[in-house]
Amino acid sequence: MRYEIIKELEGLVGPGRASYAPEDLAAYSYDAYTEECRPDIVLFPVSTDEVSAVMKTAYRETIPVTARGSGTNLAGESVPVRGGIAMCLTRMDKILSIDSQNLTATVQPGVVNMDLQQAAGKAGMMYPPDPASWAVATMGGTVGTNAGGPRTLKYGVTKDYLLGLTVVLADGAILQTGGRTIKNVTGYNLNGLFCGSEGTLGIFTQITVRLIPKPQAERTIRADFANLEDCSDAVSAIMASGIVPAALELMNRFAIRAVEKSFGLGLPVDMDGILLIQVDGNPTTLAGEVGHIERILRDTGAVNIITAEDPPDAERLWTARRYAGPALMRLRPNTITEDVTVPVSNLTAMIRKVVEICERHRIQVGVLAHAGDGNLHPCMVFDRRDEDEFKRVRMVCEDLVPEALALGGTLSGEHGIGIAKAPFLKLEMDPVALRVMQGIKDYFDPKGILNPGKFV
Amino acid sequence: MRYEIIKELEGLVGPGRASYAPEDLAAYSYDAYTEECRPDIVLFPVSTDEVSAVMKTAYRETIPVTARGSGTNLAGESVPVRGGIAMCLTRMDKILSIDSQNLTATVQPGVVNMDLQQAAGKAGMMYPPDPASWAVATMGGTVGTNAGGPRTLKYGVTKDYLLGLTVVLADGAILQTGGRTIKNVTGYNLNGLFCGSEGTLGIFTQITVRLIPKPQAERTIRADFANLEDCSDAVSAIMASGIVPAALELMNRFAIRAVEKSFGLGLPVDMDGILLIQVDGNPTTLAGEVGHIERILRDTGAVNIITAEDPPDAERLWTARRYAGPALMRLRPNTITEDVTVPVSNLTAMIRKVVEICERHRIQVGVLAHAGDGNLHPCMVFDRRDEDEFKRVRMVCEDLVPEALALGGTLSGEHGIGIAKAPFLKLEMDPVALRVMQGIKDYFDPKGILNPGKFV
Question: Are residues A206 and A318 in the same domain?
Answer without folding.
Answer: no
